[in-house]
Write a structure and sequence with these properties.
Length: about 425
């Protein structure tokens, strides 16, 4: 995104471009500051529900993490003033905000994911926020205007249940929001309130991007039998009746409860499960939304020929490269994302020699962090015991090749076997 100011903005309808005759200067400057911040965010998506307890915050958090793992720059804003859940869901309860020159710095989980919540400013996790509407409007405006979100592909906004102050404030402040994702459970008690949320969106001319049916069926981990505890299909039927898209069903999974209570991002730590794959299906239309906003490049035949094709490192077309190997207790770590350190070994592929070797401590375990971090270390190739397809795609975006299924040997033995062309590859055993 290119930097622009309100004075040079080409959007004539923007409320911050020029001061209205009846508008006070202070209000106008505040509106300009807000819009300047929002103009750096491509998509703003609200996650709401007419009823509490449907797993809305869980859906919002895992939606944001899924988008970040897909390589998008994402912000996650928790505006549930009275019951903030995001700090707990992401194991951030002990984090506190930093303010620099009157600018609030969001909490960063990784290079691609930032988050903000009232929970980061409370003295204790059990403190109650006892505010009326105007105070809530003020802090929500501050979260949008004074937080250094930077350039984002998506801002996911987790709203409290209902159609009260917080959803209304957000819709008034973000006038160009892309729309809302409405979360429900299958039973009629929840659906009745969710219909009100859809009508709320229509009244405010906020597009409904789709309905997510959460807690849709429980698969027994022992026998595989499906039990519809809260019925099933109610969300899809309601979406069809209301004429809005249905994004998918998220089944009940005890591991979601475990992940939420321990602050582990579910879609990252349990990427192979059916529930994580259901989240992937939910975000596909959201990712397509971003693709539709990207300008298509018209590349001539002559220009195409000048673009250098990435080289296949397994064919050793490079004379030297840096191989990164995750290490635990001196040998290759089977669980890639939880290793103690990385061995970075520079090799001459022509002479089949090791040129240098160094060990660097692994950074704190955060979703999406390792691909850009290892790229900065100069890595061209990763040899791992196992790695999920999503993580492999993120490394591909960094032009880093990945070989999986390597044995738990010392890094020197692994590299020597690779250079000699005899490296044995087994099963890709990593869960995420």
């Amino acid at each position: 995104m290119s930097e622009k100011t309100c004075n040079t903005c080409s959007t004539d309808s923007c409320s911050a471009k020029a001061q209205r005759p009846d508008e006070k200067l202070g209000d106008f400057l505040e509106q300009q500051a807000l819009q300047k911040r929002l103009c750096q965010i491509t998509h703003k998506i609200l996650v709401l529900s007419g009823k509490g307890g449907v797993g809305k915050s869980t859906v919002a958090a895992n939606l944001a993490i899924s988008l970040a793992l897909a390589g998008k720059k994402v912000g996650l804003l928790d505006v549930d003033i009275h019951g903030p859940s995001i700090p707990k869901l992401l194991n951030l309860e002990n984090r506190r905000l930093e303010v620099r020159d009157e600018i609030i710095m969001p909490i960063e989980l990784s290079e691609n994911l930032k988050t903000m919540s009232i929970g980061f400013v409370l003295q204790g996790k059990d403190d109650a926020v006892i505010w009326r509407g105007p105070m809530k409007m003020g802090v929500i405006k501050q979260f949008l205007k004074d937080v250094e979100w930077g350039e984002l592909d998506y801002l996911i906004i987790d709203l409290p249940p209902g159609t009260g102050d917080e959803p209304l404030s957000v819709c008034q402040l973000i006038q160009d929001a892309d729309g809302a994702i409405v979360v429900t459970t299958p039973q009629e008690l929840s659906l009745a309130d969710v219909r009100k949320s859809i009508n709320f969106c229509r009244t405010l001319k906020l597009p409904v991007l789709g309905v997510v049916e959460n807690m849709s069926g429980f698969v027994c981990p022992k026998c595989g039998t499906m039990t519809d505890i809260f019925k099933s299909g109610g969300g899809e039927t309601m979406a069809r009746e209301q004429g809005v898209p249905f994004l998918g069903r998220i089944p009940i999974d005890p591991q979601i409860v475990e992940a939420c209570d321990s602050g582990q991002p579910y879609v990252y730590h349990y990427a192979r499960t059916d529930t994580a794959k259901a989240f992937e299906r939910v975000i596909r239309p959201i990712l397509e939304m971003h693709k539709a906003t990207q300008p298509s490049e018209n590349i001539t035949q002559k220009e195409e020929k000048s673009i250098e094709e990435p080289k296949n490192l397994t064919q050793k077309e490079e004379k030297s490269l840096i191989i990164a190997i995750p290490i635990a207790e001196g040998k290759l770590a089977m669980h890639f994302g939880h290793c103690q350190e990385f061995a970075l070994i520079e090799v001459d592929t022509e002479k089949k020699e090791i040129l240098s070797k160094k060990s660097v401590p692994a950074p704190a375990h955060q979703p999406g962090l390792l691909p850009p971090w290892l790229a900065k270390q100069g890595a061209n190739l990763i040899i791992a015991g196992g790695m999920g397809s999503r993580a492999q795609n993120l490394f591909a975006d960094q032009k880093i090749e990945v070989l999986v299924g390597a044995p738990a040997e010392t890094p020197e033995n692994i590299v020597k076997a690779y250079l000699d062309g005899v490296l044995e590859s087994g099963e890709n055993i990593c869960d995420h």
